[in-house]
Amino acid sequence: MAGRVPLMAGNWKMNLSHIDALGCLQKLAWTLADHHYDAARSECVVLPPFTDLRTVQTLVEGDRLPIRYGAQDVSPHDDGAYTGDISADMLVKLGCTYVVVGHSERRQYHGETDEIVNAKARRCLAKNLVPIICVGEGLDVRKAGDQVAYTVAQVRGALAQIPASAMADLVIAYEPVWAIGTGEVATPEDAQEVCGAIRATVAELYDAPASEAVRILYGGSVKAGNIVALMAKPDIDGALVGGASLNPEEFAMITRYYDLPM
Ligand code: PGA
């Protein structure tokens, strides 16, 4: 993990109103403070729905919380007639650091292709937002044993026209679709196989320093009970956490994985 600060990102998905967000975030901050959380050892990030972001910004900035935040999606366009969409500039104004791009639920329910994912990632980078680019295979691909080839192809598509210099400002999240929200976590070995292949692909597309700089997360049923074994793998730099991030106490534990027993 040489030089890469671990990143724990809580993807709230379509949960928690802006009122609920206040309570969740305050509880997360208190729990972290109670345990002398050290942001240099792992970064704590929440990814609420768009409607919560202004509230989250007010709380994080007002109370100087050691928590960063971001959005779950962004438009690939600058502005204009795109009803319902949210631009990168709007997210920058709300103090966002991160944006999830190409989550499997967006690929599945909104037909997002590798081209769209790539356009969104480039839009983020142009506006100094860090894209968390999601990739990962479905159950049929896993059963056929094609998970590495499938996921690496998604990575290549997502990184098209993105320069090596961006790799330190970009995150790739490997989320096998069959492990999302199912309680069925990939084994640390399965997760490492694909995360290692992703890093090797970045080395091949660019160079060794670029592959050492990029942070690669695992996502899919991550909990306080399985994070330590996942983080022990050399190419896993953190986690994209769905369900467990809605419980501030559990998410605080995941963030402080280094204090948990093996
Ligand atoms: P999960 O979701 O932790 O609930 O499996 C992960 C994700 O979709 O980012």
Description:
This protein has 262 residues and is α/β, with parallel strands linked by helices. The protein is 40% helix and 14% strand. It has helices at 18-34, 53-62, 88-93, 104-109, 114-126, 139-143, 147-158, 188-205, 208-213, 227-231, 248-255; strands at 7-11, 43-47, 68-71, 98-101, 130-135, 171-174, 215-219, 238-241. Strands 1-2-3-4-5-6-7-8 form an 8-stranded parallel barrel, surrounded by 5 helices. Helix 3 links the parallel strand 3 and strand 4. Helix 1 (18-34) runs parallel beside helix 2 and helix 5 (114-126) crosses helix 7 (147-158). The longest helix is centred in the C-terminal third of the chain and has 18 residues, at 188-205. The protein starts with 6 loop residues before the first strand and ends in a 7-residue tail after the last helix. The mean pLDDT is 96. The structure holds 2-phosphoglycolic acid. 2-phosphoglycolic acid is lined by residues 11, 175, 180-181, 219-222, 240-244.
| Succession of helices and strands | EHEHEHEHHEHHEHHEHEH
Q: Report the strand count.
A: 8
Could you describe the largest sheet, including whether it forms a barrel?
8 strands, parallel, barrel
Dominant shape = globular
Structural class: alpha/beta
How confident overall, as mean pLDDT?
Answer: 96
Strand order of the largest sheet: 1-2-3-4-5-6-7-8
Integer-rounded radius of gyration: 17 Å
Report helical residue fraction: 40-55%
Bound molecules: 2-phosphoglycolic acid
Unreliable residue runs: none
Number of helices: 11
Gap between N and C termini: 18 Å
